[in-house]
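Contributing new records

If you add data, match the layout below exactly. Sequence lines come first and carry their own label; structure lines follow with theirs. Keep one chain per record. Anything else will be rejected by the validation script.
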Amino acid sequence: MERTRENSVWEAFNKYVVAFREAYRSGKLEGESGLALLGGKLEAIVHHLEKSKEFLSLVREIDANYPKKPHSSFQRVRNFFRRSGFYISVEKNEPQDDKQLFKQFSFACRESKFKRILLAPLEGVSFFQDVLDFDDFQIRRFSQTELSNILSQEINHVFYQNATIDVPFISQYWYLYYSDTIDVGDKFGVTFYFDPKVPLQFTTFSPTIEKMLHSLVLHNWEGELQEFKREDDILLNWLGFNIPISIEIIDCPLYYPSPLPTTEHLKKQYVKNIGESGYEIRPWFYHELNQDQTQGFSLNVNKNKKMLDALQESKDTWPFLTLALGFLTKAFFSNGLEELLWHITTIEALLGQHEEVRKNILTRGKRILAETQEQRKQIRKRFDNLYDIRCDLVHGNVSSNTALLVHLREARSFARQITNWFINFLYSIVIEYEKDGKLESLPRREDILRMIDMDSIARVNTRKLLPKIDEKFPFKQDWLY
């Protein structure tokens, strides 16, 4: 922008700032009787001044001197002064740097890329420490003050009440926390492009959150509740965690803040205050990870994430892994029979082929999961039972094999362990091929399945590929968890 144009915008900006401060100090609104327009004094003056000649003059300068945006210039100017904290600071009589405020305004008008924060509370799990770092995302618990500031609650309670939330309650959760920079033109612009292809997305979460979840759902959540295991194992299910809401905050003061979800459907427990009357409302945590469990979880997620990041470049070579991770994540957040079906679909995506699907997954699954012939016999029996239930369900016969809670846990355990095995195996292959600079000639899925089948040719090739593989292969205990 030319200096003269910028000066004209600054003059209009400064005139409005001065006019608002004067109106607030005097409490007099030209043409209005009293100050009870829409609530308190601040709201009344803001609503009145947004119709003033100074405000409208600034809007015209924005129209003339800055690029067009999805929102109108009136909305952009209106949102900036509200969301920047200018009005709140005037009300509190706090010192302000008008030149710095204008720089923020000018930058927001010119730029299209802004910081974005994604927050997703983990319902049902607590950790020993407040922050767990996983490189490009975190799991963390915020103080009420931190969360209130991130969500701009002081401002929103005055100007954007649909963007307010019960901070004292939700600050008790641990959150998936992620930040990046996005183009808000892409976010808020109107697009009429129609793509007939069905997107490869498996949950209702955003693709960014879904990707973060991959490392978490691979954790042995069914093992975290072993202290509750009964002798009658038939009654034992497993519990993961849930993500009941997600929040997106875009740090662009020109646009309306995203509405925040209600907390009514979040699971709550009412704990009686010791020595006091009444109850305290807390989230429901059925996984309360102690120091050792938290450390083990953190190490496991970091290990999973490291391998998945390394395999990202090979996703076009091994698209079946992307499908399996998606199905496993979908199963994690499903319930009942749907959960069982998605877990078995995960196994089919990894081990199945077009012909003799059942035979292939049973044979390969037992080789991966068990070391001895007796163990493999037991695995096959349990696998067979699960697949009978699956076949009855998808073919309309729901009476002959009734699914029990233990079947849900077994399906989850088999699917998770086999997925972990594949991630470890494929990661080992990538590391070896990377040493020789042969990443462009990675083995195909058919080659990998032959390695699991371990015919004579595949056994020799596997030895050449991974010299450290022992006689027990494909069974490797440390690849299952």
